[in-house]
Amino acid sequence: MTLTTTETTQDGEAAIKYPTVSLGGLNIKWGEKGIRRLEWFPDVQEFDSNNKNEFKYYELPSSAVLIPFHSMNGANPGHLVWDDFLSIYNLLHMFDLTDRELLFMRYILTDDNRGLWASCDFTEEKRKSCEHMMNKFLPLMVGSNSTDQRGPYRWSTTDNFDFAPRQPAQSDLICARRGVAGIGALTDHGFRKAHGWVPEDYNFTHNFGRGGLFREFRNFVVNNLNIPRTSVPQRQSGHRVIFSVNSSDIPSRVEDFQTQIELVRQHVPAAKVESYEFKHLSLKEQIEIANEAAIFVTVCGGGAVTGMFLPSGASVILYYHERGGVRGGRHGNEATHTPAMLDWDLYNSITHLRVHWLPKVTMNEIQDQMSFVSLIRYELKLIESGGLLR
């Protein structure tokens, strides 16, 4: 999102026009006033070029890219990966900077108001949750050589940037030759709709034509974690069918899939059926499991984010609540009793996967169970036929 701002001189005349950006993804529930709080442009420091000694500053290595951003809701893995990291990758990709060392700086609003609803600074509990989740998922963007080393730079915010020069500091300025900022509409939902809670979210597709970007982001993450990039192979032994159990803390989306797991084991004996509660696994374990899966079964929502990292040619089956839609936000929600196919826009635009949506309320009725088994058989047969585009 780009805005145009005009500065006014003391005489009341317009002096400078420059474009501003939104530092983070936009939540339409914030309203125009809240969204305007993310409007940003860097301060311009002027100095006399004939007397450079009076203007001192430190400079990051030329290999570094400084990334100031506001997190929409980094405590949720789906929002963190799809609204923050994917958008930042898009920015880096635009300027051919994906191979640089990345220094992330979460921007804390300075207008003395409470943090935006559901954002990382809305409550102290939310801030701590964001810090935990961001540190856990940071290797997706910067790589990791061990469990203790996440790239050359530590995660920081504008309030706790940790800079300790070897000699007494001679300046409080730290400059970067390269930087990117301005997420705005680069998120998976843009700025005119949400993630699938209300019927209006399905009126148009925001991610049309982004399939290649999603595949490149997936490969970028896999490479950062030193995991080999693969397509779903034809196997003599069974393909892995992965169930992501209890992927959400929201009661209507808690699911252990015990019935579906037994159905696949009984009716598709050649498949290798596994189930995981992914939140208890390390980040690399999660991506390694996804990278070797043929079929990934989960409930839609933030916990389904792991499915994006399946290999090319794999299948994702997402269960959604057919009467789970709600309208509202900070001041309460009102049930709409409409389908809540959360992140439908994103998943249906991922071109390296085949995506299927199944209703959750009726999932244990006989006809739904048989349809599920038939879908599993069909997907595995399609993989084994070798006729997939990879």
Kindly report the average pLDDT value. 88
Query: Regions with pLDDT < 50 over 5+ consecutive residues?
Result: 1-6
Question: What is the H/E order?
Answer: EEHEEEHEHHEEHEHEHEEEEHEH
Q: Helical segment tally? A: 9
**What kind of assembly state do the chains in view correspond to?**
single chain
Placed side by side, the strands forming the largest sheet appear as: 10-9-11-12-15
Classify the beta-strand content into a percent band: 15-25%
- In which range does the helix fraction lie? 25-40%
Task: Give the total of beta strands.
Answer: 15
Q: N-to-C terminal Cα separation, in Å?
A: 34 Å
Biggest sheet descriptor: 5 strands, parallel
CA gyration radius, whole angstroms: 23 Å
**Tertiary shape:** globular
Structural class: alpha/beta
Q: What does it look like?
A:
The chain is of the alpha/beta class. It has helices spanning 31-36, 77-94, 124-137, 139-142, 211-224, 258-267, 283-291, 344-347, 366-385; strands at 2-8, 14-22, 39-40, 58-59, 64-69, 101-106, 156-157, 174-175, 240-244, 272-276, 295-299, 314-320, 326-329, 332-335, 353-359. The model is unreliable at 1-6 (pLDDT under 50).
